[in-house]
Amino acid sequence: MLTISGALAIMLDEFTETSGVLVVEGAGTLDASGCVVTPGLVNAHHHLLQSAFRTLPGTRGVAMRDWLPTMATAYERAGVDVELASVAASIGIAESLLCGVTTVADHHLTWPAGADTVSIARATAEAARALGGRLVFVRGSARDDPQDAAASAEAIVQALLPATADGMLQLAVGPAGVHSDGRETFELLGEVAAKHGLRRRTQSNEQVDTEIALEKYGRRPLELLEEWGWVADDVTLAHLCDVTPDEIARLAASGVTATHAPGCDLPMGWGISPVVALRTAGITVGLGTSGGGSNDAGHLLADARLAMQVAPLVGPPLSAREVLGMATEGSAIGLGRAELGHLRPGSVADLCIWDVSGVADAGVADPIAGLLWANPGRRPKHVVVNGRIVVRDYVLVNADEQDLVARLKAQV
């Protein structure tokens, strides 16, 4: 058994505080003196490949219609292949674990012509498994041939479905959005999802997404998604910055879930999702970082803090507990994973131990709220996934950071 003792507070169902000993499946002992214990964070929207393409010139504060071709040029220059996908995923997962993220949903959108898509998906999954993190691999599409995208998704499911049995890997499908993919792609990927019981995910209603949909179709993105069968209770929509009250009501009635990504949308100028309005309507909202091409960091707790800071710009404020709930159980619900994102009986043993005994937390009255408000660059002291320690004393257990960095430098 893995025993964690001495914690100041353990975040439970209602984020109530308690003291004592937490025992989970696994092996070893972790001293949590002066620490707060939370569930592992769940990043509901990432693009792991972009971990190899951060702060590129011409990619900051630009319209999506300009950002997309700039990123595409960088991918083409580097040559996206199995090895690059593997090392970029390793960097992104390692960064995530070091920041307390135990589950990452990777919306993979870049598939060069002739690429071995199954090998790329497998390499990404194996990178996560080697580091000890959970992965949701989303076979995405961005202007891919619809038939090719569906055939690739089917092949990936056939190849990787056996590896999903232990819960460390999950498969899903999702076009990039109506700004890049048409009805046939959405429908064919939807058929793959229905056949295998997969979740569906896409991006919608960033301001530029709305502009392109209006130019291309004369309609708003959610109108198209509804018509194409992609507003339903097995669908999660990322971003949702530019949404009307009527659209929010229709989304709530459908059972769709949402993912807020302020660390991408705010600095890029692509809008701010009205999270309180979505939640008030009954929509479950998770939290994601998006990728390194627009955010640069996979630090979900930092983006949770940002979500609190920007909420009053588009509506009522959000509390730290509400946003921490979005970054854990809210994201997990959107993935259809009831066992993730909490520490109640029946949960898997994914958790983070955060040291709150230093000067950055001095004077903090509420150590759980302080996780977000104080110490913006905070990282967990220890991280446990599935009962196994994957970060101990701020250091990866299953890999050397510098080795990963050297691998990436050799690729790009």
Specify the CATH architecture of the largest domain. Alpha-Beta Barrel
Give the strand order of the largest sheet, numbering strands 1, 2, ... along the chain.
6-7-8-9-10-11-12-13
Number of domains: 2
Proportion in helices: 25-40%
- Helix/strand structural class: alpha/beta
- Strand percentage: 15-25%
Total strand count, please?
17
CATH topology of the largest domain: TIM Barrel
| Number of continuous helical runs | 14
Largest sheet: 8 strands, parallel
The CATH class of the largest domain, by name, is Alpha Beta
Which oligomeric form is depicted? single chain
What is the residue-mean pLDDT, rounded to a whole number?
Answer: 93
CA distance, first residue to last residue: 42 Å
Short account of what is shown:
The chain has 412 residues and is α/β, with parallel strands linked by helices. It is built from 14 helices and 17 strands.
Q: Explain this structure to me?
A:
This protein has 412 residues and is α/β, with parallel strands linked by helices. The chain has 2 domains: 2-39 and 342-401, Roll (Urease, subunit C, domain 1); 41-334, TIM Barrel (Alpha-Beta Barrel), CATH 3.20.20.140. Helix content is 39%, strand content 21%. The protein contains 14 helices and 17 strands. The strands form 3 sheets. Strands 6-7-8-9-10-11-12-13 form an 8-stranded parallel sheet. A hairpin with a 2-residue loop joins strand 16 (388-392) and strand 17. It is globular, with a radius of gyration of 20 Å. The protein starts with a strand and ends with a helix. The mean pLDDT is 93.
